[in-house]
Structure formats: C-alpha cells, structure tokens
Write a structure and sequence with these properties.
Oligomer: single chain
CATH class: Mainly Beta
CATH superfamily: Immunoglobulins
Structural class: mainly beta
Number of helices: 0
Strand content: over 45%
CATH architecture: Sandwich
Order of helices and strands: EEEEEEE
Strand order of the largest sheet: 1-7-6-3
C-alpha cells in the first residue's frame, strides 16, 4: 500500500483527510465514526486542531505546527456502518523552505 505524502511549513494550518468511495463505502453505507492520531507525538510537533470531521463520504482533520525537517504520520481510523473499519495514513513532511 502506498502512503500519500503531504508537505507543510511549521506555520501552516490546514485540513487533511480521505474521501471514501465504492467498494469501501458501499451504496447505502455511511461513515459512522473517525478517530485520528499523530505519530511521533513530540513537543511542538505536528498537532491536530479540534476534532475530526465527517462530511458524507469524506473524513478530515485540521493540523498545525510541526518541527522543521521532521516527519509525521497522521493515522485515520474510520468506521463504516457496514461494519468495515479502515486505517489510512498520511505521511507529513515539515519543511520551512
């Protein structure tokens, strides 16, 4: 499985996430919950702002901060009404320049 990569600067703040479609989100199914964790967890590291958001077929999380030249994984655990549970990752590279 290929993990998508996102670059950001330490001062940036924006939403990241995933859009689900068939066959993961079958017709008639809905996203019932999502949780997000960031690793590594470090002082002044990449941080989640607020709670994850579900909008129809999309899950997202606002993120901010991050230490220059450090890399993080943001892991979304998404539960579908059909009973399926997906764990999806984004690789975040923090670079000042």
């Amino acid at each position: 499985m290929r993990i998508p990569e996102v670059s950001k600067r330490p001062g940036e703040k924006f939403a990241i996430g995933f859009k689900y479609k068939n066959p993961d989100l079958e017709e008639g199914s809905t996203i019932t919950s999502v949780s997000v964790r960031i690793t590594p967890n470090e002082t002044d590291g990449l941080a989640a702002v607020g709670v994850p958001v579900i909008v129809t077929d999309t899950v997202s999380q606002m993120v901010e901060k991050g230490v220059d030249k450090h890399e993080y994984y943001v892991i979304f655990t998404t539960t579908i009404s059909s009973g399926n549970i997906f764990e999806d990752k984004l690789h975040i590279k923090v670079r000042e320049n």
